[in-house]
Amino acid sequence: MKMSKKTGISLLILATGLVLFLAAERLLYGPRAILGSRTGNASTFRGEGLPPHQAFIALGLGGFRGLLADALWMRAARLQDQGRFLEMVQLAHWITQLEPQFTETWVYHAWNMAYNISALFADPADRWRWVQNGLRLLRDEGVHWNAGDSRMYWEVGWIYQHKIGGSSDSAAPYYRRELARGIEAILPGGRYRTGQGSIDSKVRERLFAEYRLDPRIMDIVRHRFGDLDWRLPETHAVYWAVCGLAAAGDKGSLPCERLIYSSMIELFRRGTLVMSPDGETLIRLPDLDLALSAVRSLESAMSHPDREFLDALHEGFLGDAILLSVTFDRREQAEALWELRRSRHPNLASASTPEEFARRYASLRMQSVKSSQALGMVFEAWAQSYRATGAGLEPAAAGYRRWAGLLWTGWLSAQRPEARPANPEAALRQIQQEALTQVRHEVSPAWQARLKGEGGLQ
């Protein structure tokens, strides 16, 4: 089959990206050297970091440290049952210092604070304090004592991705807003670019002091994965997973690789953060520049033996990435991704263009889910278009409108004639108006003004 000039250019772009990635793989050795130089050798417990009287007791007890730690564990459980949480935090600190190289001790107490104790409070601000307590215990202390344990880094990254970035906690939107505000105060715009006038020594010192972000490793993350927004929890998850891979060395770490590719996929889909002037409203839009980085991070995990289970994820993500690239008018990128998907996953290969593929793929997507879920996807696409309109980002709003149109058409085509709405236009207008009503209630007043007249609502 003769290859067209356009197809050749698309494959050349993709091949160039993959070559650059293989060269960037060597950067993983950078974090290993940096982590080693910063933490030193913690292979032998000598009581460093403890108050003098506590170090004397710990070292004097020798092998009896474990018995003391067990007693303190039971005391900590009683304090938690009694609601004496502040005392329990101090006790947890002592337990971890008595057994600083027992990973489970750090993990248990960090998770207990971030997940269990935080859930006992109704106020999101109180919950956030306990999530931070657990995060700091692992990130600021546990990693120091266990620099060679990849699991410690994974646990930190998981709290960022799951607890802060996920939807399991109703207060998660508050956590994300506080994280974004905190980074914004240090790094306006959230982007870390070496050579910027704003990236001075004070900024670097604050990033490490407040978030344990080493600027040297941040540079490695940027060169390997792209210009990520550090106000987002998934970016922090990538950072700590990269550190975990460096600590794992040649044996590797599938959990850290999984944390990287899942975070990169999410950053491609929602990696552009827009904050309202008052800092109260945050919306997340696609970061289409991260498409190839997300593909490469997934293919890096797939390159190991016995990882065939990732093929389905690879195929699905390529489909989603083509759909987004088409609807957001990134035609050259859509072409490159489409050629990759055709070569690796031949189904739907008969589509003659990425645009045709996007239409057929959207239809198949809507057929594969329940009708209520499909309509929820249409609703969310329209809601995102209104959020983008409120933020004054018309190109993004137009992209979401095209996406919503493909999803709606796909849903209609998937319905049996008797199940279709009698008046599809009226049904769609109802979805649009409900989405607009929700968005008008959730965005700041500065953005509400731009939504007047949208959807026929005054």
Structure report:
The chain is an all-alpha fold. Strands 1-2 form a two-stranded antiparallel ribbon. About 5% of the residues have low confidence. It has two domains: about 375 residues, no CATH class; about 90 residues. It starts with a helix and ends in a 10-residue tail after the last helix.
Concise account of the structure shown:
The protein is built from 21 helices and 2 strands. With 458 residues, the protein is mostly helical.
How do the strands and helices of this protein lay out in sequence?
Layout: H1 5-24, H2 29-39, H3 52-61, H4 65-81, H5 85-98, H6 103-117, H7 124-145, H8 150-164, H9 172-186, H10 201-211, H11 215-225, H12 233-248, H13 254-270, E1 272-275, E2 282-285, H14 291-302, H15 311-327, H16 331-344, H17 354-367, H18 371-390, H19 394-414, H20 424-442, H21 445-448
Antiparallel strand pairs: 1-2
Helix pairs in contact: 1-16, 2-12, 4-5, 5-6, 6-7, 6-8, 7-8, 8-12, 8-13, 12-13, 13-14, 14-15, 15-16, 15-17, 17-19, 18-19, 18-20
The ordered H/E elements are: HHHHHHHHHHHHHEEHHHHHHHH
CA radius of gyration: 25 Å
Quaternary structure of the protein: single chain
| Number of separate helices | 21
E-strand count = 2
Query: Helicity range of the residues?
Result: 55-70%
| Separation of the first and last Cα atoms | 57 Å
Strand order, largest beta sheet = 1-2
Contiguous uncertain segments of 5+ residues: 18-29, 37-46
Q: Which keywords apply here?
A:
21 helices, two-stranded antiparallel ribbon, 458 residues, globular, 69% helix, 2 domains, single chain, mainly alpha
